[in-house]
Design goal:
With 171 residues, the protein is mostly helical. The chain has helices at residues 3-18, 30-48, 51-79, 90-102, 108-125, 131-137, 140-165. The chain has one domain. The protein contains 7 helices and no strands. The longest helix is centred in the middle third of the chain and has 29 residues, at 51-79. 37% of the residues are buried.
């Protein structure tokens, strides 16, 4: 294999990983589509693993996605020629995965639905500090990832409040 062939193959593999298996390559709302990989991982863990292994599986997936985000950020910024490229959506996947880790009650699909919608709202608008500050002032892999984790924390916190006030919404 020639050097350029290897570089091309590497770019394809990294782009597939960084775009959440291509979901983030959507021409509209790539972050929203990329988040769906996190929802799929959540759903697969619920359907195929016993209850005692679901949290360890979600934690493992979360750590792997965060590590991939950290390792691939320099490549993604060079490949897509910008800071925090829109098609690089591992931060959205990690952000979503944090929600079922932090909120462990209710029916999984209701948690997934509320988690997905609330996470995307908090992530897109970044109205509550420190998400906006992180988004504007932190660079590199941590800057890309942390604002999403903060947004996921807001979403999980709001889901906890909803569950305490109206448990039937999630049961």
């Amino acid at each position: 294999m020639y050097r350029s062939d290897r570089a091309t193959a590497k770019n394809y593999v990294y782009a597939a990983i960084g775009s959440a298996l291509g979901l983030g390559l959507s021409p509209v709302a790539p972050g929203t589509f990329g988040t769906l990989l996190g929802v799929m991982i959540h759903g697969l863990s619920v359907y195929f693993l016993p209850l005692g292994l679901q949290l360890p599986a979600l934690l493992s997936a979360f750590v792997i996605v965060c590590a991939a985000n950290h390792l691939l950020t320099p490549w993604a910024e060079d490949y897509w020629k910008c800071h925090d490229p829109g098609h690089f959506v591992l931060d959205e996947v990690a952000g979503y995965l944090l929600i079922p880790i932090l909120f462990r009650y209710g029916q999984w699909w209701k948690v997934a639905l509320w988690g997905f919608v609330l996470f995307r709202i908090f992530d897109i608008f970044k109205l509550i500090p420190p998400a906006r500050y992180i988004d504007r002032n932190f660079q590199g892999s941590w800057g890309i990832l942390l604002d999403d984790l903060v947004s996921a924390g807001y979403a999980a916190g709001l889901i906890h409040i909803l569950y305490r006030l109206w448990p039937k919404v999630l049961e």
